[in-house]
Protein backbone atom coordinates (compact mmCIF):
# COMPACT_ATOMS: atom_id res chain seq x y z
CA UNK A 1 0.00 0.00 0.00
CA UNK A 2 1.14 3.48 -0.88
CA UNK A 3 1.29 6.25 1.68
CA UNK A 4 -0.92 9.18 0.77
CA UNK A 5 1.07 12.12 -0.57
CA UNK A 6 1.47 14.98 1.86
CA UNK A 7 -0.31 18.11 0.74
CA UNK A 8 1.61 21.33 0.35
CA UNK A 9 0.80 24.29 2.57
CA UNK A 10 -0.72 26.18 -0.38
CA UNK A 11 -3.08 23.28 -1.09
CA UNK A 12 -4.20 23.19 2.53
CA UNK A 13 -4.77 26.94 2.56
CA UNK A 14 -6.85 26.90 -0.62
CA UNK A 15 -8.90 23.95 0.63
CA UNK A 16 -9.50 25.67 3.97
CA UNK A 17 -10.44 28.89 2.19
CA UNK A 18 -12.99 27.17 -0.04
CA UNK A 19 -14.58 25.48 2.97
CA UNK A 20 -14.78 28.79 4.82
CA UNK A 21 -16.43 30.43 1.83
CA UNK A 22 -19.08 27.71 1.95
CA UNK A 23 -19.55 28.21 5.69
CA UNK A 24 -21.38 31.53 5.97
CA UNK A 25 -21.52 31.46 9.77
CA UNK A 26 -17.73 31.22 10.01
CA UNK A 27 -17.37 34.05 7.49
CA UNK A 28 -19.68 36.25 9.54
CA UNK A 29 -17.57 35.64 12.66
CA UNK A 30 -14.35 36.50 10.82
CA UNK A 31 -15.86 39.66 9.36
CA UNK A 32 -17.02 40.78 12.80
CA UNK A 33 -13.56 40.16 14.24
CA UNK A 34 -11.94 42.18 11.45
CA UNK A 35 -14.43 44.98 12.00
CA UNK A 36 -13.56 45.06 15.72
CA UNK A 37 -9.85 45.26 14.88
CA UNK A 38 -10.46 48.15 12.47
CA UNK A 39 -12.50 50.03 15.06
CA UNK A 40 -9.82 49.43 17.69
CA UNK A 41 -7.08 50.83 15.46
CA UNK A 42 -9.17 53.87 14.48
CA UNK A 43 -9.38 55.08 18.08
Automatic annotation (TrEMBL):
Domain of life: Bacteria
A matching Pfam family: Fur_reg_FbpB
The name this protein goes by in its record: FbpB family small basic protein
Organism: Neobacillus novalis
Amino acid sequence: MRKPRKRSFAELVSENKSQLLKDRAAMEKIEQRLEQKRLGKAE
